[in-house]
Input
Amino acid sequence: MALIEKINAKGLNYWDFKNVTASGIHKISAYPATMVPDMQYELIKLIKSEDPSIKNILDPFHGSGTTLVEGEKNDLFPMGIDINPLANLITKVKLQGVNKKYAKTANKRIERLLLDNDFYFYKHDFYNIEKWYRKDFILTFSKIRCAIQKEKYRYMRQYYWVCLINILKKYSNTRSSTFKLHIKEQRAIAAMRNNIITDFLKSINTYFEYLPEYNRSKVVNLQIGKSEKILLQMGNDTVDLIITSPPYGDNSTTVTYGQYSMLPIYWIDRKDMGNFDESLIDNYSSIDSNSLGGVGKRNKQNYQSRCLSEYLESISQDKRKKVENFVIDYLEVMKQMGRVLKKNKRIVLTLGERRVDNKIVPLSDITQEYFEDVGFELEASITRNIPMKRMPRRVSKVRNCSVESMNQEYVLILRKKEEI
Output
């Protein structure tokens, strides 16, 4: 049975995974707009049944690592890229795991430190810290920070930092209704009770059980930076399978992954994060402004998209440049993905279509058009509803009217032809 027949055999609305929520390893830390683990596992399994020769999987926008974790469950070697150091850390912990026997001992040790009133710690500080955290919460988090730093094994410290992320978000002064940094009402800030240490201890004693067993010799192939630059360093025809969900537009006006991540990043000990350009964390908007469609010079795109040209003509002049810049950056990544993929292998893209000037940007059409023009064929496409998603339903306003966020996704499965 061909791949398209296997997909169609699943039936109407199968790919919505309506009643599925994140569980186990994927609950260790929340992250915006995550992939559905069950869906990724199923897609990978179907593709492997069609092509058993696949050995590795690449996600050039890996986020919190859902696809790479599910790829590894399907016995594929995972490779990932993301511009966000926090996403890198979350994914690294999910893939590298912990020594579970040692974790039980380490957890008891850190609990003793945190419950010791005589434990000496330094008060942590960063720019505007008192804007984002209550003074008593700063002291509690500083105590946890120093206790984590006393752990001798780096992989264990990284696990603790990831467990701390949700708690740092929960007890911050930022509103939970948006990924952007907006202050809560003072009444809501004052009403928060300090259960930080209890929450942290519960987290570290729960999530390690879901992680793989740590193996010092295991290679975790993750890189932090711009996908187009890192992909350029990879050889032609070296990847067996690419599965990813790229940004649907520039981060500043779609999902602000950077703003969402920056407060936890400022608490985590820099030496326990991967190697990356320090300018990415200069300010609260640095990651977002360096992502696709953001600031900086870009090479003029030689490829001329007919779908894009028609769309730009339909929106107001002042909105066009931002969309065009994003698509130029986006297609540069698509170009590099197509280059590193082996012939007769597949790219699977989960895409959403945002609105600009209250008109839908046809990202899936632009993507399909590009790949078919450079020697790929569309094997299958899936339209799925997003019944539960980690982003607000309404994200912006146009002429004082709320604009619907993306409530459907499109999955394109594209195969690189042999004759390229």
